[in-house]
Amino acid sequence: MDEKVMKTVLVVDDEPTARIAMAARLKRLGYRVIEAVDGKSGLDALRRERPDLTILDWMMPDIDGPAFCERVRRDAELHTSQILMMTSHDQPEQIAEGLARGADDFLSKAASKYEIMARVQTGVRAASLIRRLEDVTEEIRRKQEMLERELQSAARYVESLLPSPGTLLPGVQMVHTYRPSLGLGGDLFNTVSWGDGVLGLYLLDASGHGVSASLRSASLATFLRRGNVLRHVGSTDPGAILTEANRQFPLTEDGHYFTIIFARLDTRNRTLSYATAGHNGAVLQRSSGELCWLAQPNLPLGFDDSTTYVTTDLTISPSDRLYLLSDGLYEVPDPNGELWGQERLEETIRRFGKAPMTEVVSGAVAEAIRWQRHEQFPDDVALMGVEVLDGDA
Q: Which of 68, 75, 233, 295 has the most Cβ atoms closer than 10 angstroms to its Cβ?
């Protein structure tokens, strides 16, 4: 009974005797009762009081029961209201009409007090469940908004760690783009100045998503700073750097790890040296237009602390371009689930040819968006392009 006292029932009926009799019966059952003499005042009371249940007469002037139901279902604030239609219409087709127009249940005007009690209890119970669901949904919405704010803050932090585009060394230009996913992955890239015409470049990806992945990426990026590398590794050799990083960053308790490519560009002897750890996202575009993926079959960082990563050396020429990218760029599905893939990315780069790198980078992202047919990527997208402009670089 105490629980019922807290429940409110709205009775809408233009017939005073029937309305007063129903209200009296409900009050004896322990409900708080609001009365309305017609459909208009009933709608006003419903908006104002938000009762747990509305008992509604079918036959009323101006706004009858079915029209009342239709208005409620069209109202964004009221559409979940529980409505019990009270009527002498008991034919199946009439009941079907009432249900189709928005009633939740029916109560015959000739119903016994036991049936009235049972149907009112059912309606109030359904209203309680709906309101509980609405409360849970609202709480989820609030938590989702909070999470999105945290992810946006983390994304801004990650972006603050990215290098400024432009001239890295005399004759070496860099452009980049970064598109964090809604889940925020662990993609991060940067440059390391070694001085004397030597430049380090890397792109890493922490497994998993969310703030944790981005913070783990920031931790590895801190290790890859010039001073830390020279102190812990004592060398600018990419393989030696990844070998030490592998010891410094083992698998987490949850099994998370890093993939990475680290490259060293030496403009003095026109050499590109690189090492990878489970990462295939690097493309070298020769001045002739030839494309080759820089990939080495090896483990990501953290799987085996005894792993030694090997450096590969390539000769570079003026107008060669190096693209470092995350797999989130080409592993995007179309609506049927087919991935855009590395081959289509290659075709896009070839089609742009020797267009400015800013156009190539933005064009590749635009092609991926067209493929998936929406703007938001399922994973982080990072793409950095570096070009040796001339032979004096």
A: 68
pLDDT tens by residue, the chain, 393 residues:
444 457 999 999 999 999 999 999 999 989 999 999 999 999 999 999 999 999 999 999 889 999 999 999 999 999 999 999 988 766 778 788 888 999 999 888 888 888 889 999 999 999 899 988 988 988 888 888 887 777 677 667 767 777 888 888 888 999 999 888 776 667 888 999 998 899 999 999 998 877 788 788 889 999 999 999 999 999 999 999 999 999 999 998 888 999 999 999 999 999 999 999 999 889 999 998 899 999 888 999 999 999 999 999 999 999 999 999 999 999 999 999 999 999 999 999 999 988 999 999 999 999 999 999 988 888 889 999 999 886 443
Q: Which domains occur in the chain, in start order?
A: 2-136 (3.40.50.2300), 161-388 (3.60.40.10)
Closest C-alpha to 190, from 143, 241, 260, 85: 260
Going by C-beta distance under 8 Å and a sequence separation of 6 or more, which residues neighbour residue 21? none
Coil, helix or strand at residue 189:
strand
CA distance 251 to 386: 31
- 250: three-class secondary structure by DSSP: coil
Smallest CA-to-CA distance from 272 within 322, 346, 204, 326 is with 322
Residues, the chain: 393
Strands 53-57 and 8-12: parallel
